Amino acid sequence: MDIKLAKHDKRYIESTDDVYSIMQRVLLRENKIDQEKEHFWIIGMNLRGYILYIELIALGTYKAVNIEPMNVFRVAVMKNASRVIIVHNHPSGSLTPSEEDKDTTDRLIQVARILNIELTDHLIITPRSYISFRTTRLMEELEQSIKYVPPYQVVERIRKEEKKIAKEQLAVEKNKTKAEKEKRQKLAQATANALLDKGVSIEDIAKILEITPKAVEKIINLK
C-alpha cells in the first residue's frame, strides 16, 4: 500500500531523524487497533536522498510480521529507486532488535546487492523513539555476514582477501629488504670512509669490503 506524505513532511532524507519524523506520523495516523500490530515499510529514494515512495509491505500481528524479500524490492525496481530504507514498529515499545529482525535484514541486504540497490538502514520505531541499525553499527555487522551469501561469492571473497593479504605481505617484505639494503650501504660507506681517513687505498678497501673499486668510489661519493 502506497503511503502518502503529509503536507509538512520533508521530501528529502538527510538523517535518521528525518526518517523517524515521517514514519512516526505515519504510524500515529493508523487507528488504535492497527497501531498495536507490527508494520513493515520501505522508503525508496534516488541517489540524492529524494523520497520516491513509501510503501507498506506487510501488516502483521502484535509481535511479528512476515516478509517476502522480493515484495520488499518490487516497487523499488519498478520506480528505479537506487537506495532504500526499511522501517518497522514494535508495538511492545521495545527498541531491541530481535533475532528475526536481524535475520530479515541479513537476507534483504543480499537481495539488495543482487538488484544493485543500496539498503541504507533499518529503523525500529515506536510512537516515542527509534533505533537505527546503521547508527548502532549493527548494519555494518550484518553487511559482513555470509549466512545468505551464495557459496561461489563466499569463495570469491576469500580469494580476494587472500590476494589482499599477499599483496600487503609483499609490500612489507619489499620495505624490509629496502631497509636492510640501506643499512648495509650505510655501514659499508662508514667503513670505507673510516679506512680512507687512515690512508688505506681504494683498491685495498675494495678487497676488505669484497666489492669493486668502482663500488667503493660510489659509496664514498668519489668519481
TrEMBL record:
Domain of life, per lineage: Bacteria
BP GO terms, sorted: proteolysis
Domain MPN: from-to ranges: 12-139
Identification of the protein by name: MPN domain-containing protein
Keywords: Hydrolase, Metal-binding, Metalloprotease, Protease, Zinc
GO molecular function: metal ion binding; metallopeptidase activity
Keyword check for Secreted: no
